[in-house]
Specification:
With about 270 residues, the protein is of the alpha/beta class. A hairpin with a 3-residue loop joins strand 8 and strand 9. The strands form three sheets. The protein has a six-stranded mixed beta sheet, sandwiched between helices. Strands 3-4 form a two-stranded parallel sheet. It has a two-stranded antiparallel ribbon with strand order 8-9. The relative contact order is 0.23. It is globular. The protein has a single domain, classed as LigB-like (Protocatechuate 4,5-dioxygenase, Chain B), CATH 3.40.830.10. Helix 1 packs across helix 4 and helix 5 crosses helix 11. It has eleven helices and ten strands.
Length: about 270
């Protein structure tokens, strides 16, 4: 079969589950077009000292947040796990010199199940979650995605789930902005710089985003919610041949004034 693209999705805040703006419906439409056999997803809400991979057979839905409306805690995403695929992920990482441990009890955190409930609302697609290693940079995360790229030819959708902008201090500093409040200029300037670099397949610029992208420190005071982008880029093969790169933007929406909800697929021939 032809290779699936890799996907980057912004999951914003947990409220994206019930306040999805236009992005939720756009992700659902994208999910019907992708139709994967299974999903491997990296979320910043599972950070581990070293790489780890979910091998849970029936992962529970973890409401790993507090202070939100009761309706949010009633949501369940009962997607099956895929222990055999999890072991295959561990083996592929090992072949690339990356040692990863299996975790057979890991639940799905909201960085995984919130975007997946929009992409695949029937919760029928088996899911394997991959931990974001702590204290690593973009190159190491890119290498993890790159090690798993061959799974795309087996009907596996590789997803990096993070946020195109993620300044929580600004988000919570005053009353929470309205769902469709206009963003400050830095949000769109940063997001569009990243988009332009992705569209031209400029991996060196993306890896050096902290020094080169406008307002990078303000968009991401910490890099945890941006690093999953590099998992998707590595899985896509971006950087190997810009002339064969296909990027399809799903959403450029900004929610609550400062949360850029960019989502896009990236496909480069393996």
């Amino acid at each position: 079969m032809s290779a699936l693209p890799a996907l980057f999705v912004s999951h914003g805040s947990p409220m994206f589950a019930i306040e999805s703006g236009a992005t939720g419906a756009l992700l659902t439409r994208a999910g019907t077009q992708l139709s994967p056999k299974s999903v491997v997803i990296m979320s910043p809400h599972w950070m581990a000292r070293s790489p780890a991979v979910m091998t849970t057979a029936a992962p529970t839905t973890w409401h790993d947040f507090g202070g939100f409306p009761p309706a949010l805690y009633q949501l369940q995403y009962p997607a099956p796990g895929a222990p055999a695929l999890g072991q295959q992920v561990i083996e592929l990482l090992a072949q690339a010199g990356i040692t990863a441990q299996a975790d057979a009890t890991r639940p799905l955190d909201h960085g995984a199940w919130v975007p997946l409930m929009h992409l695949f609302p029937a919760a029928q697609v088996p899911v394997v979650q991959v931990a974001l290693p702590a204290r690593v940079g973009p190159q190491a995360v890119y290498a993890m995605g790159q090690a798993l790229a061959s799974l795309r030819t087996q009907g596996v959708l590789l997803i990096g789930s993070g946020s195109m902008t993620h300044n929580l201090q600004e988000f919570f500093s005053n009353d929470r902005p309205g769902l469709h409040d206009a963003p400050p200029p830095y949000v769109t300037e940063f997001a569009r710089w990243i988009e332009a670099a992705v569209l031209r397949g400029d991996l060196p610029a993306l890896l050096a985003y902290a020094e080169q992208a406008p307002h990078a420190a303000r968009a991401h005071p910490t890099d945890d919610h941006f690093l999953p982008l590099f998992f998707a880029l590595g899985a896509s093969g971006l950087g190997s041949d810009p002339t064969r790169l296909q990027v399809d933007y799903i959403s450029r929406e900004v929610l609550h004034g400062s949360l850029a909800m960019d989502a896009f697929s990236v496909n480069q021939a393996l």
